[in-house]
């Protein structure tokens, strides 16, 4: 595990997203950050795996399955590192399969149901466009282990974003029905985008120490690229709505609990099994 200089925890923080520094050890902010990175990829990977055998064509079925494997691979790297940082004997499998829903730190966007194919592609475009920018910034992360994971992951996510953009354009500029469904998918998923750029106490703390970018500063470039894709697709940007926040602090939609029931069933039923 890469060694980091001691982290001076902020004292007396309050409000949404605050963490009680005296109750945490010096590695707690890094551990929580790794969970955020891992859980985003893990939960979206699980969602995409639900398309296996159900996609519109064999080619698309394989593409979505490979994207799911990419994301679960990223989650494995981040969760294994998180287990080392935590220092309590939990590995990546334990963190994936033996945490309860309130302990997950993924954003709301990735846990939303697949819906139809257009809704899945809307979710993928909105998330991958953001994740690609995040990973590019993490290439310069002060933690060399995170930077190394990001170097591999950014190549995979670039493909995810390209594939999603191609399908959004194809469906948006296709038939009247495909365009209607694509716009509906974007409008449904758009309400969860503001959470991706939320700078809570932990995000601010990590940004100040070179461990993470200023998420709010990524928004303008994100919107510009998204607008270019949607213009080509003859679609409109999702209308601004009241932001839905809380995933980073363990407050989730009812959908995550149902997803975890499926994902965690076997390891929890046979906790001592070796695979």
Characterize the main sheet: none
Question: What is the string of SSEs from the N terminus onward?
Answer: HHHHHHHHHH
The fraction of residues assigned to DSSP E strands is: under 5%
Shape label: globular
Number of helices: 10
Number of strands: 0
Helix content: 55-70%
Mind telling me the CATH superfamily name?
Ferritin, core subunit, four-helix bundle
- CATH third-level topology: Ferritin
The total domain count is 1
Overall average pLDDT: 92
- Gyration radius from CA atoms, angstroms: 19 Å
CATH-derived architecture: Up-down Bundle
Alpha-beta content class: mainly alpha
Q: What's the CATH class, please?
A: Mainly Alpha
Provide the low-confidence segments as ranges: 1-24
End-to-end C-alpha gap:
25 Å
Overview of the molecule:
- This protein is mainly alpha-helical.
- The chain has a single domain, classed as Ferritin, core subunit, four-helix bundle (Ferritin), CATH 1.20.1260.10.
- The chain has ten helices and no strands.
- Helix 1 (28-49) runs antiparallel to helix 2 (58-86).
List its traits.
275 residues; mainly alpha; Ferritin; 0% strand
């Amino acid at each position: 595990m890469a060694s980091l200089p001691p982290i001076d925890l902020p004292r007396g923080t309050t409000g949404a997203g605050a963490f009680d520094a005296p109750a945490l050890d010096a590695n707690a902010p890094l551990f929580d950050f790794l969970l955020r990175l891992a859980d985003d990829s893990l939960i979206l990977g699980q969602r995409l795996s639900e398309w296996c055998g159900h996609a519109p064509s064999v080619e698309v079925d394989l593409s979505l399955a490979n994207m799911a494997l990419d994301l679960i691979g990223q989650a494995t790297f981040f969760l294994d590192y998180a287990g080392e940082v935590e220092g309590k004997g939990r590995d990546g499998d334990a963190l994936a399969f033996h945490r309860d829903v309130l302990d997950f730190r993924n954003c709301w966007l990735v846990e939303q149901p697949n819906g139809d194919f257009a809704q899945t592609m809307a979710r993928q475009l909105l998330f991958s466009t953001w994740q690609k920018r995040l990973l590019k910034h993490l290439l310069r992360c002060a933690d060399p282990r995170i930077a190394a994971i990001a170097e591999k992951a950014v190549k995979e996510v670039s493909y995810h974003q390209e594939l999603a953009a191609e399908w959004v354009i194809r469906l948006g500029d296709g038939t009247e029905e495909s365009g209607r469904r694509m716009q509906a998918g974007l409008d449904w998923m758009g309400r969860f985008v503001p959470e991706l750029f939320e700078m809570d106490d932990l995000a601010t703390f990590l940004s100040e120490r070179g461990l993470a970018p200023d998420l709010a500063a990524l928004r303008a470039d994100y919107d510009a690229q998204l607008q270019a894709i949607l213009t080509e697709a003859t679609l409109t940007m999702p209308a601004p709505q009241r932001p839905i926040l809380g995933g980073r602090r363990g407050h989730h939609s009812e959908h995550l609990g149902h997803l975890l029931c499926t994902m965690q069933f076997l390891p929890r039923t046979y906790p001592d099994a070796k695979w």
